[in-house]
Write a structure and sequence with these properties.
alpha/beta; Rossmann fold; seven-stranded mixed beta sheet; globular
């Protein structure tokens, strides 16, 4: 995770308008369920790297029966939103939201049954160091289950550079091959890497249409038309790199032997 508040309250509100309460990335609870597909987390301890505004952790507990979720993030605005939602739903006994500095994970070896992350480790450039840390904090037999925003090729095209610049976020995208090498180097087994590009291309087109329609008008009333127009411009730059496959959201899974 990287430092700095890249997700202020206004951006959190904008993304929740598109993706649902507590969600800062696409797909909502249904995409969380797809990441977990084939894995029973009932009663288990989870670390959620980059917990954001809390929607993911609420879904992990309410819909999937996680015993305890430790949500970890580096930004105060998203953690404040997450803590408010957890408190509102009376789940403070099963969800904790912890601020951590960038770098090694602040837990002893073998702490968690599952390490989860949804579209957040894109902000962590050193995937090799990250995978080593994930491996360390997992119990033997534990799983790393995640989605992330990957890049299709090592070379970044001008269109991709323009999109990343428009986002204004500290993206540290890596290729599927780079992720595989990092997970293997850490010691993981049973790796699965599955592209979600086709799914998100359709989602992103629908999101753009909503931003240009009633959803955008409602957001503009709260957040200002200029801010909505800024986000429309981001989507207009993102869709072409989804169409080429250079931007490839991906599901990742691996087991600690």
């Amino acid at each position: 995770m990287s430092g700095g508040d890249h997700y202020p309250a206004r951006l959190i509100a904008m993304l929740e308008t598109l993706w649902g309460e507590g969600f800062l990335s696409p797909g909502g609870p249904a995409e969380v369920a797809r990441i977990l597909e084939g894995h029973d987390i009932a009663g288990k301890s989870l670390l959620d790297i980059g917990c954001g505004a809390g929607g993911i952790d609420l879904a992990l507990v309410r819909a999937h029966g996680a015993g305890y979720v430790c949500g970890l993030d580096v930004e105060d605005p998203v953690l404040a939103r997450a803590r408010a939602l957890v408190a509102r739903d009376g789940l403070a006994g099963r969800i904790g939201c912890l601020k951590a500095a960038p770098g090694p994970l602040p837990f002893p070896p073998g702490t968690f049954d599952v390490v989860f992350s949804k579209d957040s480790i894109v902000h962590i450039p050193d995937k090799t160091a990250l995978m080593a840390e994930v491996f360390r904090v997992l119990k033997p037999g534990g799983w790393f289950l995640a989605s992330d925003w990957l890049i299709g090729t090592d070379a970044i095209s001008p269109a991709m550079a323009e999109y990343i610049a428009a986002e204004g976020l500290d993206f540290g995208m890596a290729t599927p091959a780079h992720y595989r090498a990092a997970m293997v180097a850490a010691g993981f087994a049973d790796l699965t890497i599955r592209s979600r590009n086709a799914w998100y291309l359709q989602e992103a087109r629908a999101e753009l249409a909503r931003l240009q329609g009633e959803t955008g008008r409602m957001a503009a009333a709260r957040l200002g038309q200029a801010f909505v127009d800024h986000n429309i411009a981001i989507w207009q730059r993102m869709i072409p790199v989804l169409e080429t496959g250079e931007h490839c959201p991906t599901h990742l899974a691996a087991r600690k032997p």
